[in-house]
Task: inverse folding
């Protein structure tokens, strides 16, 4: 695996009103898997109840998801769709690629709503999360388990299943 020498994404951690809120938007998860890709968890951006309505969109930004990127730009991976948060080199190329089998590449709809495939955050590997703060692949099975922030009384442990809309399912 190559060295990651530059920031590849600059995710704004300010609420829409402009106040900086540490620890609200981003989960703390970064994980390299034996498949050679980097998995990154990102939160929904709010303090409760997805107050900014980020979690149900795959074309709004980098929110409420587990991202999967290729920092080595392996053959077969594709460039990410344009977005202001993506850092680029002097030639305009992103510092990472997107694995060709990520579930939202070429998506024309999500949850029954049509969308422009050029606006999809193809980095998203799993969605339907709130603020994953820890995740791990089970070595014998390869299944992904994620600890997600709950709302009032309970926290969640999710088994991440990539089918259909690539959603997380609470255990």
Result:
């Amino acid at each position: 695996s190559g060295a990651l020498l530059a920031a590849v994404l600059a995710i704004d951690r300010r609420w829409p009103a402009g106040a900086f809120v540490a620890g609200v938007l981003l989960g703390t998860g970064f994980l390299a898997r034996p498949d050679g890709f980097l998995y990154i968890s990102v939160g929904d951006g709010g303090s409760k109840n997805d107050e900014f309505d980020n979690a149900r969109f795959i074309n709004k930004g980098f929110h409420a998801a587990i991202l999967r990127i290729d920092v080595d730009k392996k053959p077969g991976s594709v460039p990410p769709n344009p977005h202001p948060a993506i850092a680029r080199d002097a030639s305009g190329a992103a510092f990472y690629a997107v694995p060709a089998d990520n579930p939202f590449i070429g998506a024309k709809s999500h949850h029954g709503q049509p969308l422009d495939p050029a606006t999809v955050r193809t980095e998203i590997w799993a969605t339907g999360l709130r603020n994953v703060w820890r995740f791990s692949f089970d070595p014998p099975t390869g299944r992904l388990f994620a600890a997600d922030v709950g709302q009032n009384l309970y926290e969640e442990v999710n088994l991440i299943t990539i089918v259909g809309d690539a959603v997380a399912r609470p255990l």
Summary: The CA atoms of residues 80 and 98 lie 6 Å apart.
